[in-house]
Amino acid sequence: MNISLKSSRLPGWHRHSAAIRGRKVSDWLGAGKGTQLDSLWAGGLSIRAAERLVENVVGIFGLPFSVAPNFIVNGRELLVPMVIEEPSVVAAAANAARIARFGGGFQVSASEPVMICQVQLFANDLEKARIQVEENEAELLSVAAASDKTLLRFGGGPLSLEVRTITNDQGQAEFLVLHLHVCVVDAMGANSVNSMGEALVPHLEKITAGKVGLRILTNLADQRLVTARVSLPVSSLAMRDYVAEEVSAGIVSASRFAELDPYRATTHNKGIMNGVDAVLLATGNDWRAVEAGAHAFAAQAGTYRPLCTWELDRQDLLRGQLRMPMAVGIVGGATQVHPSARLALDIMGVKKANELACIAAAVGMANNLAALRALATEGIQKGHMRLHERSRDLIADSKKID
Ligand code: NAD
């Protein structure tokens, strides 16, 4: 069944039991695939698979695998898998996604999936070494390309070389850093570009008579950005005891606070990463890599800035924009080894890494909208504490069992 023909708007989703929600997700997945959901009830990962992922395994650590309804991203109806231990994040995402539907959902674009490998180069004459690298760019690119023929087959590979001179506090040049820009297609790309960086070592040292130092990707993936937008009628933002205009003005004011104060911007961005990380965990992606990139990008202008901002347009539209690096893959790493990660990609019908990047950005934006809406009105604790109560009940229950 074509996923885009179905609506992800599922009123009362949170009131169903996990079993019924699971059955509905099976229906959503369509014939044959629904049975994969059974594996989630057994923890989603066998010891054998765990041992293929990491070292020294002695067991499996479970986390809830939730599904947030209501999302529309680039016109597609989506159920979004989220894995997270913190109460209220999934509920907040689903609620904000419901509101975003009044504006047609989230519009998200992703740049080409370009990652950067850094290769550090020491030489006696740095200016001469820079010229030698620039003159031999084509040869260096073909050496890098030869180290990952599979990537070339999928349409990726090295694109260009940039040479930077790194100076110390006194302004003296200390070493060069080559930035190898690589299109990694559907991979997160860390291993791909690290291999390319290492393959360059003998050629670089020969060409420049220099010495190569570190060669590894940068997680400041500023060539691999997502931009998410949403435009909401102010009228869609009304809450129990608050008129819509009051709520939207509060959201804009909260956004301004984050723009002007790094202490606030840090927590603002943490709320965005609540949503982003939950999607990355569900899909077996390296969330630490995306976290590192997000915060470095937020500070790139010299002060720490919010990744998502909100403003009023003509008093009747609330417009949000999120921009951040999003280095995610649907091949490589744990994405295909972890059965639950494969299932998560299936639930979203994701076929390209950039599609996943767009969805993760939309969820981050949804969580930001939900947090600011709550903070600008009744505060965040009311909903949070209600859900925390459930965790406390659980602890009490487990003590009784012990
Ligand atoms: P990978 O090497 O497992 O998979 C990527 C490879 O898959 C490509 O090089 C290519 O040969 C092949 N491939 C097949 N189909 C492809 C397609 N459609 N598009 C692109 N490539 C395709 O993984 P990776 O994505 O290079 O690296 C991700 C892993 O590296 C993650 O597990 C991450 O945790 C880890 N890692 C991260 C860092 C960091 O972020 N600093 C450092 C080291 C390792």
Topology:
Blueprint: H1 18-29, H2 38-41, H3 47-53, E1 65-73, E2 76-83, H4 89-100, E3 107-110, E4 114-122, H5 126-135, H6 137-146, H7 149-153, E5 157-167, E6 173-183, H8 190-199, H9 201-208, E7 211-217, E8 225-233, H10 244-260, H11 262-282, H12 287-298, E9 308-313, E10 317-325, H13 339-348, H14 353-375, H15 381-401
Helix pairs in contact: 4-14, 6-8, 10-11, 10-14, 11-12, 11-14
The structure holds nicotinamide-adenine-dinucleotide (NAD).
What fraction strand? 15-25%
Topology, number of strands: 10
**CATH topology (level 3) name of the largest domain:** 3-hydroxy-3-methylglutaryl-coenzyme A Reductase, Chain A, domain 2
H and E string: HHHEEHEEHHHEEHHEEHHHEEHHH
Write out the distinct hetero groups bound to the structure: nicotinamide-adenine-dinucleotide
CATH architecture of the largest domain: Alpha-Beta Complex
In which order are the strands of the major sheet placed? 3-8-10-9
Could you estimate the helical fraction of the residues in percent?
40-55%
Low-confidence stretches at least 5 residues in length (pLDDT < 50)? none
CATH superfamily of the largest domain: 3-hydroxy-3-methylglutaryl-coenzyme A Reductase, Chain A, domain 2
Distance between the terminal alpha carbons, to the nearest Å? 47 Å
Largest sheet: 4 strands, antiparallel
The structural domain count equals: 2
The class by helix and strand makeup works out as alpha+beta
| Radius of gyration using CA atoms only | 23 Å
Estimate the mean pLDDT confidence: 93
Quickly count the helices: 15
CATH class category of the largest domain: Alpha Beta
Shape: globular
